[in-house]
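Lab meeting, action items carried over

1. Structure of the two-component assembly. Owner: GW. Status: complete.
Input record:
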Amino acid sequence: MAMVSDAPKGNFRLSMLVYDTRYRSITIQVIVLGLFIAFVAWLLMNLQANLAAKDKDISYSFLFNRAGYDIDQQLIPYTNDSTHGRALFVGLFNTLAVSIAACFAATLIGVTAGVLRLSKNWIVGRLMTVYIEVFRNVPLLLWILLAFSIFAQVMPEPKDFKVTQEMVDQGLEPPAQKIFFDSIAITNRGTNVPAPVLDRPLGSFSVLNVPINLSVLAAVAVIWGSFWVNGRIRASAKAIQEDTGFRPVTWWKSLLVLILPITALLFALGFHWDIPAFAVGESGVSKGFNFVGGISLAHSFTALFLALSIYHGTYIAEAVRAGILAISRGQTEAAYALGMRPNRTMNLIILPQALRVIVPPLISQYLNITKNSTLGMAISYLDLKGTLGGITLNQTGRELECMLLMMLIYLFLSLTISVGMNIFNNSVKLKER
Amino acid sequence: MSNSHFVRTQMLPAQKPPVGETGVIKWMRENLFSSWFNAILTFIGLWAVYALVSSSAPWFLNGVWTASSVDECRAIIAASAGEGASGACWAMINERWHQFMFGFFDRDEYWRPLLAFALLFVALSPVLYFNLRRPTMIMVGGAGAVLVVLLWGVGTDGWHLFLAAAVMAALAALAWFAPKHLLWVTLAFPATAFFLLWGGSVWAPVGVMLGFGIAVLIWRALHGLIGVTPAAAVAALVAFVWWGFLQGLLTGALAQALPAFSLPAEDSDRFGGFLLSFVIGVSAISASLPIGILLALGRRSDMFLIKTLSVGFIEFVRGVPLITMLFTASLLLQYFLPPQTNFDLILRVIILVSLFASAYIAEVIRGGLAALPRGQQEAADSLGLDYWQAQRLIIMPQALKVAIPGIVSSFIGLFKDTTLVALVGLADPLQGITKVVKADIAWKAAYWEPFIFVGAIFFIFCFSMSRYSMYLEQKLKTDHR
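Predicted assembly:
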């Protein structure tokens, strides 16, 4: 009696395509492929018919036409004579600016709130719980609109900051004051913040009409160099420690290396802050209608940035809390048994282990921040959605081209962020055998 | 020998613990002032609470509930709390709450969305507590009681109040005597809710449901003969033939013959406020669950083509913002449909939001599938179950259980995101309705009240849902740790 028999080698029958598991998956895939191709063909035929009916074609040549609209926040030079393609890039940079700023702020808020929610301090723990639950259970759009309304309705007008002749005579202060050491003025028109200014800049050159500032490049190079030297100092200290058991004192070297070169460079370039202020006439009376100097941030940027970072901060806080709670108590107890203080236990034992639990949800929050920056549309923040998907689309009437291009750009951004963060995730992941 | 030593023969009474180790003081020392850093944090916290309360309390306490305009509100506040005092003008909510809730729905017909809302809970009860008499009974009865109160609150006429109460009482009786059969209510719910909300003739939704019934009958008759997948294909084909060609004839004739079975039709553009949010949120999440399950299974499939298509769809949808999907619904969809097809913006938005949600649900369910040990699939295989039997009986019940918190949080996210439909011109509660209300000169100056009202309602729904999902998670946890 044969215990093992080969599969029957009968002739191939057509019914085997359905009943034989060896062929069935191929059958199914062929059917699915056919249906998919038919579906795509149907869509394309409809598209062709619709375009013909509307007397349109698909062409991206509008990207090289004059845009003719203004964008109030530009990170690269742009006027209303520039092309739609350039407006696209201005929008893209605005998207990136608000997303990156919000990612940093949300991480800061989130880590603080997440750690504080676990604090043994009763009142702080409760306050953080209230903050997290209130902000994450209400739509983001509400926070954006609310922040924008607060800026536009509650903040004083620029003229409230002015010093008039009567005030000088009677020794009074103007009704509104600048905050943060008299440097930042929040008015209902915008937020005026100090601008960094160089008296002796290194000049700039331009690539593809995008100016590249040599002074900034120099500063970045100096900072990078300082960190590299600092890394070398620490590495050599570690090598000495492993050889001899004694760690040489390095903190003053680190401090010197990190601070001295950049300070020297900034001093050589004549760096100072240009603080926004009213022009002052004789006897201290303010002149003009608005602040002079500094950078004026539009409320659409500030409100979107604030709302994004506070809203997504709650999600990051929850991720941080979950990560810390995921580390078993035995780790803390072992650290205490070794005589570590609570602070060092947190920094050296808990957080490094919690990080690998925290990073994946953190990545998805960064993605969400980038995608949710499109909500700036509700308060007329001209990001990619506002330029390419908004004004350009309405002006040229090329919905299909604009929407497809915009989706591809967002897709590209998302994939870039997730690839980059996954590389980071793999580097902090616990290395197992 | 002098007896100089002393031996105590009685126990001393226990001394009271030191003052610092008991009661409030001990609690404060441990929880508020355990170190100097904590003490500073405590004072900062107290200051924050004080600053919040002292700045907002007068505004809330001075609130006025009955007035006909913001100016009148301000006059009342100035009269009662003194000149220069600020206060909320809740009168705006008092006058216009129905628009925030129902949009421009006919006021006499409010019983319809409310009844549909109560039926939603009836439809959910067998899904959550299948064949358990007590909890389904509580859920159905509770929904009925709340419904009667709400109907009375919106001033429904007696006949419809009675009708709704009778329907809910009948369902409660069904829940008591045959909780299993409540599943039929769940299956019929989409058509029922459509009929209640949009009105028109009853026969169109009945015809659509009939198509599903025909498909199921054909599948049951054939799947023993020609196998599961071909039977499903035949059933789907027949159902499409029914919907495409036969249904229209039959329902048209029935609507002509029996015109009494109809409700006044409501156009989609009269939907607004939280009604719109719920319609979009609930239909998108329920449509996205089956699609999401299929996508998750497709992503784990061994078949290259199916896997590629699933991954491509999921990653594309998750990579683009929801707004682009909404604008696709409002601007782009018309290019890809046959010329002169023109259907409702709300329906288009629901379709696109469902596709959007299904990609997220697919990832949540994939997480649930990944949490299952491989042995489960292998055990199913060794029992001789085929693919769909294994998925239905072994894999999905466990994977879905793990995925429940994720599904609920997807729903919460989706429900919050329904506010974005304002950007394509629908009347969501936050922007659309607020704009409509503030277009009235009397309420133009009310800045904060709509935010607070809409935000509070969103908070109540989202917070209770998230707490419920935490409770479910605890309850469904069957691993012993």
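2. GW to write a short summary for the group page. Key points so far: Chain A touches chain B through 54 residues (CB under 8 Å). Chain A has a mean pLDDT of 85.
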